[in-house]
Amino acid sequence: MIIDNILAAVAELATLQTLALMMIGVA
């Protein structure tokens, strides 16, 4: 389903954004 792909993409973007914020916080 296209919706499943969209949800998966959003989940990946959210994870990457969280990791980026954590790295910025550490730095």
Automatic annotation (TrEMBL):
Transmembrane intervals: 6-26
Keywords (A to Z) from UniProt: Membrane, Transmembrane, Transmembrane helix
KW Membrane (keyword) present: yes
Protein name, as recorded: Uncharacterized protein
Species annotation: marine metagenome
